[in-house]
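Late entry, written up from scratch paper. The run itself happened at the end of the previous shift, but nothing got recorded in the book at the time, so transcribing now.
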Amino acid sequence: MFSDDDLRTIREAVQAAERRTRGEIVPMIVPSSARYSDARYLAGLAFSLLTLTVLLTWDLGWEQHVVHLHHPGWVVLGVVLAYAVGYGAGSISVVRRFFSSNERMAFKVRRRAELAFYEHGLHKTREGTGILIMASLLERRVQVLADKAINDRVPLGTWDTLVNDLVQGIKDDLPTEAFCKAIAKCGDLLAEHFPARPGDNPDELADDLIQDK
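Output as recorded:
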């Protein structure tokens, strides 16, 4: 998804933003925030129920000359095959999204971001100014998590525009540009509340885009 040039561009965007602020910006992208294994079972169940309904109610008019689709053996076989097809289709992103509620996906994305926040040491910055910008592709969601010092000064909802713009940029297949714009906006906001101090602005966290599996 990202070439070496893309990764360098994002890294430079982080460095440029952090030169103006004591905040530490960490961009991250993951394929999904959870496995959603139950979506495969639900897809299999939906396919099998649909097939069962068709087999029991659809009168083709000519099946007596070929095969009687209402025969129990054919019904069972059709339902089993439909379940297998649905279960397999459950591995496709659009199917997993369809069988997962928005509330559940939002919860999973936030939980994944919270884990990443601690895994990558954003809670360890000197002044509590770490901020994570995490995009989760399957859910088409972005989660921004900021440390306490930032949350104490930045009102709730401040990040909404940044989140919406990054989500749209990824949907438009412009992830590098979208990440760079989000990082710049984040830098602007942090520079307002946590401006850089000349000679005292250590780079505490890596500037690279984190790409987790």
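The first strand starts at residue 24 and ends at 30.
(Scratch paper discarded after transcription.)
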